[in-house]
Amino acid sequence: MSAQPQLSVVVPVFNEQGNVATLVHEIVAALRGAEPFEIVFVDDCSSDGTLAALQALKAQVPELRVVRHLANAGQSSAIRNGVKAARGAWIATLDGDGQNDPADLPKLLAQRDTAAPDTKLFAGWRVDRRDSGSKRWASKWANAIRRRLLHDDTPDTGCGTKLFEREAFLDLPFFNHMHRYLPALMQRAGWKTVSVPVNHRPRGTGVSKYNNLNRALVGIADLRGVAWLIKRGKVTRTEEV
């Protein structure tokens, strides 16, 4: 493993014992030889064998690091703690259920390498969702409402496949579920964002940790809060003189 990786792949997981090994090996296959990288899995206090599976994988994959929550804290906290632990200047994220395809990561990196310097987020866009009809319908309406309220010009903020600058991310306000609003929050901070079409796959094993009702209930409060943040936000650039 490089002493200083340029890219850190952060993966939050909760009870994903059956998915972590395949995902780790897919990340390695996608990135080895591309640029120095590390993989940071954050176990959100799983109650199955997820942590043991990750510890066993560390002996096989030198790029792998494992961070463990001492209490269940949710996906946003897992992502943030993974980013804080990461050593790369750029962060890629993937969901731990295997539905995001690590083979898309080089595509996001290529977009970054040709983008303007003030583009700090490359967000995956699942153009062909592999979810149930009810979940696709709920996401369609949630995305439409979000775009209307936040004006973030982003077709899909729920995709776990993202690439962003570590420093820019850590400068954002943190709150539970903030990972669903990264484009709007990055734009509020004065940065540009780009949506990149990516692959989406059926879940391999395990069950989803969300349902349409709990997403809707927390989404209403979150949208109001993010809209308030945008209204009250002010960007002031500085220079040393």
Question: Describe it for me?
Answer:
- Keywords: Cell membrane, Glycosyltransferase, Lipopolysaccharide biosynthesis, Membrane, Transferase, Transmembrane, Transmembrane helix.
- Residues 8-169 form the Glycosyltransferase 2-like domain.
- InterPro entries: Glyco_trans_2-like, Glycosyltransferase_2, Nucleotide-diphossugar_trans.
- This protein is an alpha/beta fold.
- Helices cover 39% and strands 17% of the residues.
- It has one domain: Spore Coat Polysaccharide Biosynthesis Protein SpsA, Chain A (Alpha-Beta Complex), CATH 3.90.550.10.
- The chain has eight helices and seven strands, in the order βαβαβαβαβαβααβα.
- Strands 3-2-1-4-6-5-7 form a seven-stranded mixed β-sheet, with helices on both faces.
- The chain is globular, with a radius of gyration of 17 Å.
- The model has no long low-confidence stretch (mean pLDDT 89).
